[in-house]
Specification:
The chain is mostly helical. It is built from 3 helices and no strands.
């Protein structure tokens, strides 16, 4: 079986752009949520007796080896799936 180098590069680029698009969409969505957030302080704390002294912001992600391995494996699996589908379609189109 021959590996199509152009298709391999295409699958890696498509996977990279999809990953960057997903991360970019999360950033844009977070920015829009921050801009549109209008807190109603009197209603929110009308029944509370003890207010917080610290505010938590964002999520804490610990980048350990397992998480990095998970992301790399997902990237490779998606690229391999894209390559397989595209090469299958090319082979099918040549037969017909």
């Amino acid at each position: 079986m021959r590996i199509n180098k152009r298709l391999c590069v295409e699958s890696l680029l498509v996977t990279l752009f999809m990953t960057l698009g997903i991360i970019g969409w999360k950033i844009v969505r977070g920015m829009l949520m921050t801009v549109n957030y209008k807190p109603d302080v009197p209603v929110a704390y009308s029944s509370s007796t003890n207010l917080q002294s610290q505010v938590a912001f964002g999520a804490v992600v610990q980048w350990d080896f397992a998480l990095i391995l998970f992301w790399v494996a997902g990237f490779i699996l998606f690229a391999a799936a894209y390559y397989g589908i595209r090469s299958g379609l090319q082979h099918w189109m040549k037969r017909t």
